[in-house]
Amino acid sequence: MLIGVDWGTTRLRAYLIGADGWPVARKDSDDGLLNVKDGDFAGVLERTVGPWREDAPEDTPVLLSGMVGSRQGWVEAPYVGVPATAEALAAHCATVETPLGLVRIVPGVAIGQTVPRGGLARGDVMRADVMRGEETEVMGALEALGGDAGTFVLPGTHSKWVTVEGGAITDFSTYMTGEIFAAMKNHTILGKMMSRDEADREAYLGGVARGLALGPGGELMSALFGVRVEGLMGRLREASAASYLSGLLIGAEVGAASRGASSVTIVAAAALAERYARALEVAGVEARAAPPDTAARGLAKIAAALS
Amino acid sequence: MLIGVDWGTTRLRAYLIGADGWPVARKDSDDGLLNVKDGDFAGVLERTVGPWREDAPEDTPVLLSGMVGSRQGWVEAPYVGVPATAEALAAHCATVETPLGLVRIVPGVAIGQTVPRGGLARGDVMRADVMRGEETEVMGALEALGGDAGTFVLPGTHSKWVTVEGGAITDFSTYMTGEIFAAMKNHTILGKMMSRDEADREAYLGGVARGLALGPGGELMSALFGVRVEGLMGRLREASAASYLSGLLIGAEVGAASRGASSVTIVAAAALAERYARALEVAGVEARAAPPDTAARGLAKIAAALS
Fold first, then answer.
1. What does the pLDDT look like over A120-154, one tens digit per residue?
2. Does A297 lie in the same domain as A249?
């Protein structure tokens, strides 16, 4: 048995996980970091998973993943570099003593943390990125689907595209897609044409086509103004503008991130997974969906690697 | 003599213009469209330029440009298509009778207003765009600098890149650069690292280099998250993050928009013109600045073409 918690900024998802790696009980609340008062993480944890302890063996380990391990969280679990295996994640867990016993926190993963020996040459662009929580979901998706390699997308506020080789996370990129969508819709002139909002598949696919066709550089900033232009010219209904904008941004993301991939595994809830599946289809990339509970599966896999 | 007004959403810039096309008096106020109460455009105009009428000849024409000619403005002056010459702009001015006499409003310019004969083929992406006010500034810059062709950038909330051939505007694109900067800074996680803000030339140029290096698609959305990552990794000071973000977006804009241009004329106030000049320099594109009062010069040129 294992008690696992995917503890993010806004949500907390707790699992009681059986020996086979599948959750036998779950709790989902809005006790994310932002709602933990006075740093009382131990109290929130006790209140959430305490009842499970009464039935589970005394030594049932507790493993957390997500932003709870960030500097703004409970105890910082410093990032590990790539390649990051389940064993490396297990070996670098942070620990904290609590009334519930020892609690471990899975570290995040970073690339480009250090400048290469010799420094950056003039004109060099160094790509760096971080994730926290998604590494555990990717491990779970790998475990659930079998195999030890592939490309994974975890869409959302900050979409992650993750490359796995030989069972290790070797590369990844973050796209601010969801957050840019919200900022454009709520805080720019584009929102003025979105007083109504209906899901419009045709408009979504029109946006996807535009996003996939973007050339080098910041042409996206011009295509964004195009949302307004299409409205001004009467070719985009007000109620469809948000669907078009969503398609444009997801198409732009898929166009940049899926290059070189023949197949992508989508780790997301059904509605969002469906949007990405459509965009990947238009891009000519095979898509498959990961089963649910990838965080629980990943926590189980990392817990199994704890020595 | 001519009374010319560049009347935008937030600002009003009025000029008394001599026979040589140069302004002899000017007024600048925040009586933009948003501050005109009860649609009393005539009253605001009278209050602003009325005193000039006392000295100028009775038949001094009054010509307006900018958003005052939009559907949200005073009287709509429908867009003209490309190629748009000063003569075409003059021929399509909207008119309104006022206590000051007949007032004319310069139309905006649109591309891609109509779907090509035969319709769009599947996969076709139709580029459309609109401008209002910038066409007049471009005409003024052409007049001031001589020549009848070139590439012009008018940076700002919605940056315009305009191609002129044979004295006519033949193509243009809008980039939402300024508005995206504000939305990212004020309404996303990036703003959290920008509590202080100092102009940092090195950070700006670092952002420009990243923006110019963007590949196809929406890689910009990943580079935007990179602003946060650089901060997390301690490679970007909090006070320099806004400079880096500005450089990233302007570099991305220049990278996409200046392709194919060997020389670009910048139509902007000094501080913004300087930022674009630096980015163009890094991109290897020759930059020159237009002289001030391009709107007044353009209004004079269009007025001269009124039959």
1. 555 555 679 999 999 999 999 999 999 999 999 99
2. no
Interface list for A 158-187 with B (CB within 8 A): 158, 173-177, 179-180, 182-184, 186-187
Asked whether residue B176 is assigned to any structural domain, the reply reads no
CB contact under 8 A, B184 and A183: yes
Structural domain boundaries enclosing A88: 2-111+292-304
Q: Is there a single domain that holds both residue A298 and residue A285?
A: no
Q: For the domain that residue A246 is a member of, what is the CATH number? A: 3.30.420.310
**Rounded distance, CA B31 to CA B41, Å?**
10
Same domain, A96 and A200: no
Q: Is residue A166 part of a domain?
A: no
Q: Do B179 and A186 touch (CB under 8 A)?
A: no
Q: What average pLDDT does range A65-84 have in this prediction? A: 96
pLDDT at B127: 79
Task: Average the pLDDT over B23-51 and give the result.
Answer: 95
- What is the rounded CA–CA span in Å between residue A171 and residue B29? 53
In this prediction, residue B117 has a pLDDT band, given cuts at 50, 70 and 90, of low
Q: Are residues A89 and A40 in the same domain?
A: yes
Higher pLDDT, A121 or A229: A229
Count helices and strands in chain A by DSSP H and E runs: 9, 13
In a domain, A121, yes or no: no
Select from B208, B222, B248 the residue whose CB has the most chain A CBs within 10 Å, as the one to mutate to test that interface.
B222
| Stretch 6-65 of chain B: residues touching chain A, C-beta under 8 Å | none
Say which CATH number the domain at B101 has: 3.30.420.300
Q: Residue B306: inside a domain, yes or no?
A: no
What is the number of domains present in chain B? 1
Contacts of B5 (CB under 8 A, 6+ apart): B12, B13, B14, B15, B45, B48, B49, B62, B63, B64, B65, B66, B68, B299
User: Does the pLDDT of residue A99 top 90, yes or no?
Assistant: no
Residue of A129, A184, A216 with shortest CB distance to B215 = A216
Are B218 and A186 an interchain contact pair (Cβ–Cβ within 8 Å)? no
Same domain, A220 and A298: no
For B243-293, write each residue's pLDDT tens digit: 999 999 999 999 999 988 999 999 999 999 999 999 999 999 999 999 999
pLDDT at B7 exceeding the cut of 80: yes
Which B-chain residues 193-232 have CB contacts (< 8 A) with chain A?
A: 209-222, 224-226, 229-230, 232
A249 contacts on B by Cβ (under 8 Å):
218, 221
**Distance (Å, whole) CA A296 – CA A4:** 6
A106 in the same domain as A20 = yes
Residues 6+ apart with CB under 8 A from B283: B212, B251, B254, B255, B258
